[in-house]
Predict the structure.
Amino acid sequence: MPEHEKSAAKQGSARRVSTTNEGMTISSLSPLFDENASASHSNTELAPTSLNTSARRIRTIAGQVSIELFLPILSGALLALCFMPPPAGILAWVALVPFAAAISRARGTAELYLGTYLGGVLFHLHTLDVIRTRLGGCGVFESRTAEWLLHGCIAALVWPLTLYLARQFARGVQIGMSIGLPVIWISSEFLRQELGWIVTWSPFPWLQLGTTQASYLHMIQVADLGGVWAVVGVVAAVNGALFDAMASRRLKPLVIGLVVVAAAWLYGEFRLRETAIQQGPSVALMPDPIQPAAVVQQIPKVDVLLWTETAYRETIDEPMSENTKALEACAQSTHSTLIVGCYRRQTNLRYNSAAIVDPKAGYLGCYDKCFLVPWSEFTPWSWTSPSENDTRNLTPGTTRPVFAAGKFTCGVSICYDACFDRLYRGFSPKPDFFAACSRETADITGYAARAILDMTRLRAVENRRAFVRNVDGGFSGVVSSTGEFTAAPDRPWGAPVSVGRIPIDRRATLAALAGNWLPISCCLVVVVVLVRSWRRI
């Protein structure tokens, strides 16, 4: 046989031996998983190799499982921390990076979706702890623990749904996370808000990523273009750009993120420098409870007197009652417009209201709170708290009246109303400023009080209208149309507290005129991409 043929034969034989040994090595793993495997698979010479190979594979699988569980849970933990008092909101600029990594994983395993759900549960149980502690307790088994657990576990279902849609969206369109993540996250938060009807029998606008930036005035000015959703988009775009930069190991995505932040900051600087503001009515915040006959001598000469939620212990009955006559006498004596939190009764219905009394025209009417607090003013799931029947008889209001306050006009909102951007778009004509009364003493965590203030700041920017707030147990003061908060002295007050004149800003905004155009557009983009992707299959 020629030398070159002998050489080829030897190489072929070597390849056959290598292939045979490789096959024997793989098959020899079977004893580790099958106790009934035959003894022929337990070759003593191959056992060390098979054990080493199996150990490596187990470590690899364990590593993949731990990463797929860890990534979304890390995002949930970081997002939960973002909603702590400032400056924790700075974490929002990186909190979605692990979630973007979860979206980009090659396979959507059960561990990945389980980790995403657990991250959602962690996030909601931490940020909604006010439900459990609302009645003053801080133990695990409080009277509201069932509602807290149910709300957190059900709301967290949106997270794995978001992950699934995001993965399908990423397959359907080849774009970077700097664009895809804002579209997905805005759609997700909007979906969670509307699915609140299922969980709480009302929308659930809490925990929006944009509210974490309420203290950074330059960053929230874009809210007058697209509402809080515009702020969500800016923050999510930066998270996506950071992930793209790490995944590609290139600087170009970072440049995109910097451009987004710079554009938002420059727009904020432009808005903050505008001088379209004039001085409005003078306002004093009143201590509780209201006693019309006793406070006349203490009240300074101001245009508007504002009390807290339910400050007037008497119920307002319509038509005119002795209680409303007492308020009229107080207004005439002080020469001020009164805005007084109270309860109003009409036939068999009872409302959480704010009465407005003019010193000349008398009782002008009431604003009835439109959005009631679940498990406080009404109970979505009555079986969870069968013994609490005294607070379930409140009825939500349906109108948004605008009242005269001297030479200016005023819209009124109460406590939880501040969470709902749709409420303030419904005032027609648009008032010159808003008065907000609230009572947040039941919140021992302080989280709800901070969250409502942050959402008030965003409502002010979205509508370019100032808010004056009198809050028992929360943050009282003036929020300007740029979101800047000027706090009143800490309670308790023994006498009226003057907060000066309300800044009047009458600028119109795209957010107030077009409403939720941005989240609806994002949802439509996601739907179109998903439909096109599924039709190709």
Summary: Confidence is low (pLDDT under 50) at residues 14-47, 386-391. Residues 47-82 form the longest helix (36 residues). The two ends are 57 Å apart (CA to CA). The chain is about 50% helix and 15% strand.
